Every structure is written in structure tokens, then in C-alpha cells.
Amino acid sequence: MIMKLVNRSSLLSILLGCLLFSFASTVGCGNSGNSVPEVTKDEIADYERKMADLQAKADEEEMQRRMDKDE
User: Fold this and answer.
1) How far is residue 55's CA from residue 38's CA, in Å, rounded to a whole number?
2) pLDDT (mean) for 2-11
3) Would you indicate the residue range of the signal peptide (predicted)?
4) Is-contact 19 13, C-beta < 8 A?
């Protein structure tokens, strides 16, 4: 009697897991081919250049603030 319940429970758990996985795959969860856009090396280089420019500007403003504070 207990073995039948355990087996039935295990089978239901496996079935539920398969159904949830199938639903998640159709909705777009997991490894969806179009979920991550392609990024080119040029775009990465542009981003890095912009970040370096912004950092240099922030450093310059900080230095100016410190010089104004010392006066």
C-alpha cells in the first residue's frame, strides 16, 4: 500500500516537473536563442571609450573640488 503511494507520488512529481519545464521553455525561460542580443567588438570599444572619458571628467571635477576646498 505504501509502495503504491510512493511510486504514484514520484510519478506525479516527475510529470509535474516535466510540465513546468515544457511551459517554461515555450514561454521563453531558459536557453532562448533570441533572448541575448549580439554585441560587436566595436560597440564594446565605444562603450569602454565613453566610460574612460566619463571617468577622466569625474577625476578632473574631483581634483578641481579639492583645489577649491584648499583655497
Assistant:
1) 26
2) 60
3) 1-24
4) no
Mean pLDDT over the full length of the chain: 76
Whole-Å CA distances, 66 to 8, 14, 62: 73, 65, 6
- What CA–CA distances, in Å, run from 10 to 7, 13, 20, 51? 5, 5, 15, 54
* Model pLDDT, residue 3: 53
pTM for this entry: 0.45
Angle (CA) 19 29 40, round 5°: 155
> What are the grid coordinates assigned to 53, written together?
572619458
Residues 7-35 pLDDT 10s? 666 767 777 776 777 766 665 555 555 56
Identify the residue whose cell numbers are 509535474: 16
